[in-house]
Specification:
This protein is mainly alpha-helical and about 240 residues long. About 75% of the residues lie in helices and about 5% in strands. Strands 1-2 form a two-stranded antiparallel sheet. The relative contact order is 0.12.
Length: about 240
Amino acid sequence: MNISPDVPLWQWEWIILNRTILFTWLVMAILVIGSWFITRRLTSGPRISRGQNLLEVLVMGLRNQIREVSQQEPGPYMPFVGTLFLFIVVSNILSIVPGYDAPTSSISTTAALATCVFVAVPIYGIAHQGLPGYLKQYIKPSVFMLPFNIIGEFSRTLALAVRLYGNIMSGSVIGAILLGFVPLFVPILMQAFGLLTGMIQAYIFAVLAMVYIASATQNGQGPTEQQDTENTDSDTTSTHTTTS
């Protein structure tokens, strides 16, 4: 039994093709081909295909979750967070196929996904607040917190990678162990439980990524507060106008 799917399948000098890379390409191909197949005949009429219906439900659900977490319009974040969620959830769902190893059960894959979040957070933060505004959050509430805030950036990225890797890998290992002792019903139940766990972990990873991005794009006054402030100003202006 291999704990990690990083088993070399082919090697030429320093170029190595292992099971993680192979199954990652498989998941990417499924997402690309599936997206092309569903979106090639989109319609706004009353009768839509099952694929479009499923895609619309998925997109609307993701947009609502991003809006609730960030209190912002989900448009700018949807491509990144949605891609993370779809890649992880498809990777984990395919684990019910015999012979398939989820790429997310490899620390290299989860570390790569966490690194994407680590890079995306400052990009979104700088795009939303500008470079000075984004860097100011590292010295809040005082300049003495600078090293701790920097350590926090790296530690949460590490936690993001280890959490996903640990949950997916442990499910695969437990299922393999039970397969050796009880070869029929218990492994099936464990596969079903692992499928549910994999979908939950995909959701948690996407939500945490959105939380980190939202923390970098809000400069101490969220959009809701800004809207309340604007409404208050508008009411005050209306009151003055009426009084006059």
